[in-house]
Design goal:
- It is a single chain.
- By secondary structure, the protein is mainly α.
- It has two domains: 42 residues; 133 residues, no CATH class.
- Helix content is 45%, strand content 7%.
- The chain has five helices and five strands.
- It is elongated.
């Protein structure tokens, strides 16, 4: 067999091996891991006590009224629209963003009874996707008094729900602690 034919045969065998490995075995393994690990491949649905799907743990949704914890503002379409995911793309010195943040800061301060300069940053700024389901524990704690008063609950009970819903850093050092607003509001609804 001449050299050219032998090199062609090696190339064909390598192509077949890599096609099977990267085109069949790897995708099947990744699919299997996605189906097994934490059930995240089906949308991470949050289910209420009646067994109904009320949302996704990974996509924020709006909550109106003083009796609910409020999520971050959304820049996704009309609000939390997954088909319009995206930030506002306004820079920190953009007058429109500065005015919007000041307006949100005044609203959050008035609603939660805190000084405007003390309002948690995530209460006035949208996330990069506009769909963030989480808020900081600081933001949640600032809302405790309002929610407790609107529901006629002891603030320590509501603060305990916030504490219970706070998730620590991934692996103890990655990211910041967060509170999933949907899951917190679901726990609040289950109180009574």
């Amino acid at each position: 067999m001449n050299l050219t034919l032998r090199q062609a045969w090696v190339s064909v065998r390598l192509l077949i091996v890599m096609t099977v490995l990267l085109g069949v075995i790897y995708p099947v393994a990744i699919f299997a891991v996605g189906r097994i690990v934490a059930g995240t491949s089906d949308g991470s649905y949050v289910i209420d006590s009646a067994g109904s799907i009320v949302g996704s743990a990974h996509i924020g949704q709006a909550f109106e009224g003083d009796e609910w914890f409020h999520p971050r503002p959304s820049a996704a379409g009309a609000g939390y629209d997954p088909l319009s995911s995206g930030g506002s793309n306004l820079g920190p010195a953009n007058p429109t963003l500065v005015e919007l943040v000041a307006e949100r800061q005044a609203q959050a301060a008035a609603a939660n009874g805190v000084a405007p300069e003390s309002v948690a940053p995530d209460a006035v700024t949208a996330s990069g996707s506009g769909l963030d389901p989480d808020i900081t524990p600081e933001n949640a704690q600032q809302q405790v008094e309002r929610v407790a008063a609107a529901r006629g609950l002891d603030p320590t009970v509501v603060a305990g729900l916030v504490e219970g819903a706070t998730e620590g850093r991934l692996l103890g050092f990655i990211g910041e602690p967060t509170v999933n607003v949907l899951e917190l509001n679901l726990a609040l609804a289950n109180l009574g």
